[in-house]
Structure formats: C-alpha cells, structure tokens
Amino acid sequence: MRPLPYLELVCPAGTPAAFKAAIESGADTVYCGFRDETNARNFPGLNFDRREMGDAIALAHRHERKVLIAINTFPKAGHPGPWRQAIDQAAELGADAVILADIGLLDYAKRTHPDLRLHLSVQAAASNADAIAFYRDRFGVKRVVLPRVLTVDEIGQLTRAVGIETEVFAFGGLCVMAEGRCALSSYLTGTSPNSQGACAPASHVRYDEEGDQLVSRLGGVTINSFSKSEPAGYPTPCKGRFTADGQTSYLFEDPVSLNTLDILPALKAAGVTALKIEGRQRGKAYVTQVVSTFRAAIDAIAQGIGTNAPAAAALRAISEGGRETTGAYKKSWR
Amino acid sequence: MAAFLEFPARLAGLAMRPLPAAALRPLLELGLALVARRHPHLIDRLKALGPAKVIIEPADLPHRFLLGLAEDGVRLTLATPEDEAVAIVRGSLASLIDLMEGRIDGDTLFFNRALTVTGDTTIIVALRNIFDGADLDLVADVLSFLGPFARPAGRAIAALDDFAKRVEREIKAFHDAQHGRDVEAEQDRLKSDVADLKARLARLESRRPGAGSPA
Amino acid sequence: MSKAALSLGPLLFHWTAETRRDFYFRIADEADVATVHLGEVVCSKRAPFFDPHLPEVAERLSRSGKEVVFSTLALVTGEREMAMVRGLAEMGHMVEANDVAAIQVLAGRPHAIGPFINLFNEDTLRTFARLGAVRAATHPELPADTIAKLAKARGALEIEVTVFGRLALSVSARCYHARAHGLAKDSCQYVCGNDADGKPVETLDHQPILAVNGTQTMSHGYVNLLGELAALRAMGVTRFRLSPQALDMVAVAALYREALDGRIGADDAQAKLRSLAGPVPFIDGYYQGREGLAWSEAAE
C-alpha cells in the first residue's frame, strides 16, 4: 500500500525502448504520443505508431502502471481528422487518460468519449483558478499540468482552490515563456510548436563551425555561439544570446534545466498530485537516470529520509548547459 | 559483465590503428549484417529515412564512415575524401557506440560538446532517435550470431576474444608488411581470413535456428 | 462588400500616465477608428499608474462615438490578477478576454476573444460562440487560409485581424526588461517605461530581431497587411486592428481607412506607411504561411 499523500511520478517516453526504461526505473505513469503532428514532441524518428502504443499500454498495465497519451497540439482549421483519430485510438487502446490543450478538441473528446479521462496539457497554460475552473466545469478535466510560471506558494493556493489534481514539472527542459503561448520558434521557422508540434525543429537548425566557435542558427538566424569547451544548450530562441542596450547576454534564460529535487518536500506540501519529468526527445539513458533518481527521492521523502545529494549532483551532467535551476518555483527567478 | 563491455572498447582499440581500408570493409559489412539480422525493424526505419548519405567521423580514428540510407538497403562503408553527405556527425568512437546502443543520451553528449553535428540536423536527430529506440546491443548481437557458442557466456567471450586476437594479429602482420613485405598479399590474406570467419559463423548459426534471443 | 471597422488595439507599452492620456485624447478627437481597446495587457504592476485616468479617457472616447473595449491581462496568475479581470467585467463595457480566466468570468454574456487566446480551428471558435463570444481576434501565427476557414465558420461572430504593429510573440512570468537591467520583476523600477516602442534586441551578428516589452517579447518588424485588406474582406473579415506604436497612429488609422475605402492606390499606401514607420521593417510572414519575420517583397 502506498502511503498517502503519494507523489505520482509521471515519466516521458519518446520510443518503446524509453517506455520500457521508464517502467523498469520506477515510473508510476508514462506519457507518450503518436508519431505525427498531434503531439508537442513531433521530432523525427520519435514517438509511437498504433501497434507500438498498444504494446506499451499492455506492458504498463501488466506492471500496474498508467499511460497518458499527449494529444496536445492545436488542430489545424479544416483538418481535425488526425487529432480526432488520435483521441479515438487512445480510447480504443485503453489509455488511462489523454492530455489535451485545444478547447475544441476537449469538446470533441467529452462528447465522443465521455468515459475517457481528460488531463489539461501544459500547452493550455492554465495559470490561475478561474482558467482551470473553465476546463474543469465545461469539459470535466480531472487533472491540470501547471505552466512553469508559478511559485510553489501559488501552486499551493491554486491546488486548494481548484479541487482537481495538479501536476507540476519536476525535471528537464525549461520553457521560460508561458507554454502554448510562445511564437518565438515559428517567428524564425514558420513551423509552430502549437500547430506542428516542434519547437526549434531540427529541419531549421544548423550548426556551423566558424573558427574556434560553434554557431547555432535557427531559420538562418543566429541563436548562439559557443567557444570550444563551453557547455551548449538547445537552439531555441529563449536560450539564445542576444544584444540589448549594447550588452550581449542570455536575455531570456541561460542554457539550463529545471531540477526540483531540492524542493520536492515543498511541492508535496503544496498538495500536488504528480511530478512530471520532461524529455520525450531524450534517450532511454536519460529516462533511466532521471526516473530512478526521482523514484528514490520520492520514496525517501515518503519514509521521512532526506534526498540523495550525490544523485542530485549527477543529474547536473545531463542538464542543458550543464546547469540547473528551480525556475519560476522561486519568486526571485522572475 | 565487464568483459562484455570491453568489447566495443576493444573494437575501438583495433580500429584506432591505421587498419587498411581493404580489411575494414568486410568487417563493416559483417557488423551491419549482424545488426540487420537481429533488428529488421531498425533497418526498415533507416531505409525510410533515405535516400541520404551521412558521414560518421570518430574523432579518434583515421577513418570516416559513410552510412548510406536508401529504399533498397542500408550500407556502411569507408568514406573517401570525394564522398558527399547531407550531414556529418563527429564524436569519439566510444561516444558514438554508446549513442548507437542508447547507453548515453544524445542531448547530453551535445550539451557536453562531446558530439558535433553539421549539415542536415533532421537526419541526425532521426538516426539518434531510431537507434535509441532500437535496443541495440552490439555484444548481444554478436553473441546471438555465434549461435551454440553463445552459451555458456564464458565460451562466448572466449570466442570473441579469439576473434579479436586474430584480427589484432593480422593488423600486426600488416604493420610488419609495411616494412618491406608485400602489402597487397597481406591484405588479401586478411580478407580471406575474415571471409572464413564469416562462413564459419554463418554455419554455426544455421545449425541453431532458434538463435536470436538476447543473452 | 461587407462592412470594415478599424479598431485600435490595447497599448502594449508602458508609457507615462500623461503620455497615455494625451494619446487617447488625440485618438478620441482625431482618429477615424470604430473601436478603442483600453486596459493593461502585459503587466499588472503597470495598471495602477493609469487606473485613475481610465474613467475620463473611456468617457471621452465614448463621447466621440467610439466603442470602448477593455482588454484583460494576457497571463493571469494569483488572486490579485484574477480580481483585476473580474473588475473589468463589471465596468459595463465590452471586455476582450486574453486569458481563459476571463472567458470563465464572461461566459453567458457578450464578450470578445483576444489575440492571446489559442484559437486555431472551427471547433474552438464554435465553443467560444456557444459561451457568448461575439467577436474574435485571430492569433498572430495564423496563415491566410486558416483565417479564411475561421471567417467561413464564424456564424454571427465577427473576426478581427491585426493589420499593423509589432506582434506579441510570447508572454512570461519573468520580466526581460528587468533582467536586461540586472533587476528582478519585483524590484523592476519600471524600466520598461524607458522604451516607448519596446527595447530593440539584436542577434550576435547584429541582425535586429526582437523587441522586449516587460514580460512580453515582440517582433522587431511591424506587421503590415495593408496590401491584404481586400483579400481579408473577401474572406469575411470585418474588423481590422491597429496595434499602437510610438508613431503617428492617427495618420496610420487615416491611411488604413483610405485603403479600406479604396481611396488610395496600393503603391501610394505602402509608400505612405513606409514614411510613417521610419526605419522599422515590415513583416507579413505568418499571413503568407511562412516564418513570422518574413516580408513578401511583392507587397512593397
């Protein structure tokens, strides 16, 4: 029997191999997406076809774990087919919930599959009690994944106010803009995370070696330049170096990953139901390391033991730019 | 377990020497054939990525490899200076092998600057994701091919060691050959040895139709 | 041809209360626009400066025959900001929702959907209409064919498209103006007030690319759909938004009015807008289905 309140560990899988790794490393729940534009990690070579999804769900259910299917992009006008089909398939395959962002699609899911559990994707960026009440009251959403714009105190207040489950990001890539409300990548590339499901799509990324520097460009626009041994970050505009007022800096955010190992007890006290690990685009080695570290940390907290400092430090090595932050969870970040 | 993990490193050690192209070519073919036999789904997905050519450049080797992806098959050959590719991926051989087997995360390598990608980033990301999802294990692939030798594990490792030592001997012979002996003849000898080895392994495998489950 | 109303979007920059008041007085007296949006969209910390002037400005605009619409914050967090949204809803004017919180508050009575709401398809549009939306501003990322599809599915709802001004590309909890000055949002000293048109941001190789406006990030170029007005009207778009910049917005409004009424040739109109916009480049990439910063030279 799991002690209550229990923090559910929700882990990413971009491939069946990563899915297996997540289950073996102690994930309570795994989230994944179909291999098309219906999910926000529509990267080349990633994700699940229908057969792989069915196998993954069977594997998880054999181990009494849950599977959430992310269908969290915004359907294209005049072309709702792939998104509706993804919802129909998720229901048929026995997914434990679907993670949605689009209001029209939530409406479709509720009307067509009244028994399908609905989670609100972070891509909806529902950052306050009224917005969450909208999704709860109109579509019966059971859980909301909170955008990375809130402090731990705000998360606590919100969780108490909304009366549905909240899920927060615990580790991984850090969107510094409100999720689903950022057009920086499409501004440079013409393809949008909201519609095509990829931020800084590989098709528009170039790395050029210029002298001793490695220059990253997105859509032909210079994002960053790294010296020889300098740790690198993703070529997303929000982690780029820019010049303002004659000063060059990481104007929006440094290349850095979110890590909440140090504030897990506070998140638990805030009443969140689930911790989400970001990284469906990462390899199974990442999944294994991060999931087992968080598994151990959650279990340690449940038993009243402190977290494992060496394991936390080891995660730094797999972080963007080799660095970590607690992001918006602390007010000073703003 | 340690002996298993030694294998990629041993291969790397072998390859790091200036192995003649003629000797490497059949080894690459053999390696790819071993992978293809155990992971037909991987090969199908790689084929679907093409037509494209990618250069793989182990930073610590004198050689560059050309991975050809096309509808009719996947080819791994030595790259010549004239070969053109849509993308180049560069890193230490150990990193590249780890990446292929999904033992390390590609983004981590990139963040740490242990991996460099130039050209068409899409195909490299796709390759990375497809390999990571394939549960490739070069040691297990070789072991499964060894058929009856695969069990007990000790014998399999002995067989591997024997294989590695033979190749090493041949390389030493090749170096000696460079000091006055006939290089062409040495290369031919090496080629025929590798062909022998392949035939022997194929025979062993055919005697054990059930072979294929990982060790 | 359907009717064509010009609307002045909410002022997104942090101008001093006096500058802001004088701007709206001049708009009330001189600008040929049907609708004027008031309300702080970007940062709740800025709102108290102008709040004392709001009734006076709203009254003057109404008196000059302009419809006043209150736009809500684009990113609402915490009790205080939710209270701000509820406060706007009680002012008796039309309210434009820029956060789903506002839709929850406004549901059941006529309201507008702002450009910060993720409206990408017909199902979402119909859901909004069912909840009482009578007007919807399109999301900046939408290409022409999507705008056409939404306009076709609009029913009784009016569709509004931003045809001039810097595009808001993102919103954050973090203030980038403060960060650029080595400050945090809580101790920001209102440095966003130093840049009336946004703080210019360049790439490492000196390409002007973005403009920072507090917690908001904007395009460097001004959207210019002057040459697309007829096409938009043919799709069924009836409202055309001008987003205020630190330039002669009365002249910009007059020019767009002339263009909508067919009283000025395409080349003349572009030349006139060019001279009004100064050195800032134009963009129309999203409309053309391309990267947002692109500019179709054909229109120049």
Note down, in words, how this protein is organized:
- The complex is a heterotrimer of chains A (334), B (215) and C (300).
- With 334 residues, chain A is of the alpha/beta class.
- In chain A, 32% of the residues lie in helices and 22% in strands.
- In chain B, strands 3-2-1-4-5 form a 5-stranded mixed β-sheet.
- In chain B, 32% of the residues are buried.
- Chain C has 300 residues and is α/β, with parallel strands linked by helices.
- Chain C has a single domain (5-171, 216-299), classed as Aldolase class I (TIM Barrel, Alpha-Beta Barrel), CATH 3.20.20.70.
- The two termini of chain C are 25 Å apart.
- Chains A and C meet through α4, α5, β8, α7 and β11 of A and α4, α5, α6, α7 and β7 of C.
Please give the structural blueprint.
The complex is a heterotrimer of chains A (334), B (215) and C (300).
Chain A: E1 8-12, H1 16-24, E2 29-32, H2 50-62, E3 66-71, H3 81-93, E4 97-100, H4 103-112, E5 118-120, H5 129-139, E6 143-145, H6 152-162, E7 165-172, E8 177-182, H7 184-189, E9 205-210, E10 213-218, E11 221-226, E12 242-244, E13 247-249, E14 257-259, H8 264-269, E15 274-277, H9 284-302, H10 309-316, E16 324-325
Parallel strand pairs in A: 1-2, 1-15, 2-3, 3-4, 4-5, 5-6, 6-7, 7-15, 14-16
Antiparallel strand pairs in A: 7-14, 9-10, 10-11, 12-13
Helix pairs in contact in A: 1-2, 1-9, 3-4, 5-6
Chain B: H1 2-16, H2 21-38, H3 40-49, E1 52-58, E2 65-70, E3 73-78, E4 87-91, H4 93-100, H5 106-111, E5 115-119, H6 121-133, H7 138-145, H8 153-178, H9 183-206
Parallel strand pairs in B: 1-4
Antiparallel strand pairs in B: 1-2, 2-3, 4-5
Helix pairs in contact in B: 1-8, 2-7, 2-9, 3-6, 8-9
Chain C: E1 5-8, H1 17-30, E2 35-38, H2 47-50, H3 54-63, E3 67-71, H4 78-89, E4 94-97, H5 100-106, E5 111-113, H6 122-130, E6 133-137, H7 144-152, E7 158-172, H8 176-180, E8 199-202, E9 208-213, E10 216-224, H9 229-235, E11 239-242, H10 249-260, H11 266-277, E12 282-283
Parallel strand pairs in C: 1-2, 1-11, 2-3, 3-4, 4-5, 5-6, 6-7, 7-11, 10-12
Antiparallel strand pairs in C: 7-10, 8-9, 9-10
Provide a brief overview of the structure.
The complex is a heterotrimer of chains A (334), B (215) and C (300). By secondary structure, chain A is an alpha/beta fold.
